[in-house]
């Protein structure tokens, strides 16, 4: 019997006059969660927290959620997924999802990158050509300067440096380099959130009085990262700064009761957080945007 390949998961909701569509670019299974999250904790401490939250203790699912913001005048893609490089592993499905919900790549007017890791930038190119040929591009100035610096050669960041040279530098002439507080389009601003990478950004979106924060990789797991924001994460370049940023960004989100979209949160990757003594409780989106 031939296996049926289903379309990628998509989820759409309204935020004021904007339509937000989240696409599941794919998911990966990671072994030994404590090697990635809580890397400064005893493995048993990580296992115990997972078990308390009804999660497997020896494996972890990491999913990827690029998004589309349709403002009525712009179609904005926030992060691009793995692209063709991920397809042999069942990843790189954002382009397929974009088409499934009725958009063409040519309709995209802005590509906004929270940061320049491969799962966010590899979808910029398709068959050696721009995946979104009519778009302009925005990313962090500090981020771009870090990854394009030749001093990355011969360091653990060399692979990322090469990926940026291949996937991002070709768009430099069409790219706006953002600083903290810069506007992307009307109602959408960038906020510097360093630590995961030096120039990581989050995007604050407001439409008709409704708000959403797109947090990128500020937190990468709804229990191990949000529940324990001070635990070290292997993928964070500056682990102490990343923890400080997690506290700052998610304290703001919790205090103001703003929904957020996190690239690695459980699909559809949208939810809320509540402050608790040791960290934050994640509350997934249900029907809040439908009423």
UniProtKB/TrEMBL annotation:
<feature type="domain" description="Metallo-beta-lactamase">
    <location>
        <begin position="63"/>
        <end position="264"/>
    </location>
</feature>
<dbReference type="GO" id="GO:0046872">
    <property type="term" value="F:metal ion binding"/>
</dbReference>
<dbReference type="Pfam" id="PF00753">
    <property type="entry name" value="Lactamase_B"/>
</dbReference>
<comment type="similarity">
    <text>Belongs to the metallo-beta-lactamase superfamily.</text>
</comment>
<dbReference type="GO" id="GO:0016787">
    <property type="term" value="F:hydrolase activity"/>
</dbReference>
<keyword id="KW-0378">Hydrolase</keyword>
<dbReference type="InterPro" id="IPR036866">
    <property type="entry name" value="RibonucZ/Hydroxyglut_hydro"/>
</dbReference>
<keyword id="KW-0479">Metal-binding</keyword>
<keyword id="KW-0862">Zinc</keyword>
<dbReference type="InterPro" id="IPR051013">
    <property type="entry name" value="MBL_superfamily_lactonases"/>
</dbReference>
<dbReference type="InterPro" id="IPR001279">
    <property type="entry name" value="Metallo-B-lactamas"/>
</dbReference>
<protein>
    <submittedName>
        <fullName>Glyoxylase-like metal-dependent hydrolase (Beta-lactamase superfamily II)</fullName>
    </submittedName>
</protein>
């Amino acid at each position: 019997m031939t296996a049926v390949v289903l379309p990628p998961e998509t989820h759409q909701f309204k935020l004021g006059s904007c339509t937000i569509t989240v696409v599941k670019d794919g998911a990966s299974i990671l072994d030994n969660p404590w090697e990635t999250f809580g890397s400064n904790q005893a493995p048993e401490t990580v296992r115990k927290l997972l078990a308390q939250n009804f999660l497997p203790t020896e494996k972890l699912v990491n999913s990827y959620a690029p998004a589309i913001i349709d403002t009525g005048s712009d179609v904005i893609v926030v992060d691009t997924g793995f692209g063709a490089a991920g397809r042999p592993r069942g990843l790189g499905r954002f382009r397929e999802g974009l088409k499934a919900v009725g958009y063409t790549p040519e309709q995209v007017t802005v590509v906004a990158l929270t940061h320049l890791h491969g799962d966010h930038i590899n979808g910029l190119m398709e068959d050696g050509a721009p995946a979104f040929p009519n778009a302009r591009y925005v990313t962090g100035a500090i981020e771009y300067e870090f990854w394009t610096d030749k001093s990355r050669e011969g360091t653990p960041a060399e692979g990322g440096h090469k990926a940026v040279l291949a996937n991002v530098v070709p768009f430099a002439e069409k790219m706006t380099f953002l600083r903290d507080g810069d506007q992307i389009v009307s109602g959408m601003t960038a906020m510097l959130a360093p630590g995961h990478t030096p120039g990581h950004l989050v995007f604050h979106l407001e439409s008709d009085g409704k708000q959403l924060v797109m947090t990128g990789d500020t937190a990468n797991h709804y229990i191990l990262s949000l529940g324990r924001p001070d635990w070290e994460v292997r993928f964070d370049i500056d682990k102490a700064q990343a923890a400080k940023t997690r506290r700052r960004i998610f304290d703001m989100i919790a205090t103001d009761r703003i929904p957020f979209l996190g690239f690695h949160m459980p699909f559809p990757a949208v939810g809320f957080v509540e402050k608790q003594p040791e960290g934050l409780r994640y509350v997934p989106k249900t029907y809040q945007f439908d009423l």
